Amino acid sequence: MQTANLGGLRVSRLCFGTEPFNFKKGPDDDMRQGDKTPVQGGEILAEASRLGVYMWDTSDDYGTHPHVREGLKWVKRSSVVVADKSNAATYEEGIKAVDFACKDLGTEYIDIMFLHIVPPRPIQRKDAHDRTYISQDFKGRKGTLEAYMEARDLGRIKKIALSTHSTDTLRQIVDEPEIDIVCAPLNMKGTYVDDGTQQMRLDALKALHDAGKGVYVIKILAAGRYREMGDDCIRYALGYHDFIDAWNIGMYDVTDVKHNITLFADTLR
What we know:
Layout: E1 3-6, E2 9-12, E3 14-17, H1 38-50, E4 55-57, H2 65-72, E5 81-86, H3 91-105, E6 110-115, E7 123-126, E8 132-135, H4 142-153, E9 157-163, H5 167-172, E10 181-185, H6 198-210, E11 214-218, H7 230-238, E12 246-250, H8 254-268
Helix pairs in contact: 1-2, 3-4, 7-8
């Protein structure tokens, strides 16, 4: 498994997306997964780490904090990179988000803490549990950003990150010095690209990388919808390895991990 510098952190280029542990994924007629217990998920994550996949991605609304917490019991904490996310907007919410993340994950620090799914302007969304909330734009998240910066100074966060489905938002943060890492959807069909063309998305990701920010991509299989053409989707995304540092792929078991490690090795060789 190749590694890369992601915004100042050394990470495995294959990132373990933990959503399938708790959410059913796949094409509409093949929705499955989502039934791993925390102990099962933790054992899978620990084995992935032994195989070289030591970047783990979760969120406060995926329901996979317990799985990551169990995984951390099996490994040396400094040997893995944990990315967590929150929709927090205000300073007070940001403080609570960091406290919750550390407590719920059973760790003293979070390697990468995200401002999650930041739109170009405030909009109403539903979270992973179908609960309605107002998703604030980057300006509306400045309170949480301040809280994250304080947490970073205290060593409770290593890197501050931003995730978005919007190309406009990607463009807005190219020159934002406090954002170390960015992630956004990228897949061969342009799904989850909220605005702009596929080429605009690629250009924005390259501009962020050229500006010195770490870049990783998500939704490569469109939340499992393209599972039947999964290898082709992954190869497509890997084709932009010159300005993408890591690829977050939702994985369900060790078989998935081993398959993707081989696919990465063959494609990126």
